[in-house]
């Protein structure tokens, strides 16, 4: 068994430990992720929810994605760092911000989602598979 993925917010008020490997890892260039990250994309790793333990209280806000489905973004009320996302239609998965990992080098992106909204100045690995929007679940 591999060692868990661990991480949390910048101040340590929120911590997580995740057993298992990511189901999907991506850079997302949708406008919501651009706004939240303050740059051209957000970087995420998605895991099976069953292997996730979270300590600390996150502040949450719901938003409606392009799919029409609600996604809940969770961040630390103390330091403001975005930490994870959950999805109303997919309670079985848990998505973390790659930058929140204790060992960010373990993050290995597989694809770019919402490439149709990417900017010329946001240079991502050209070898990654690109999806114009979100690939089918």
UniProtKB/TrEMBL annotation:
Pfam families: GFA. SUPFAM superfamilies: Mss4-like. Residues 5-122 form the CENP-V/GFA domain. It comes from the Bacteria. GO terms for molecular function: carbon-sulfur lyase activity; metal ion binding. Keywords: Lyase, Metal-binding, Zinc. Belongs to the Gfa family. This is GFA family protein. It comes from Bradyrhizobium commune.
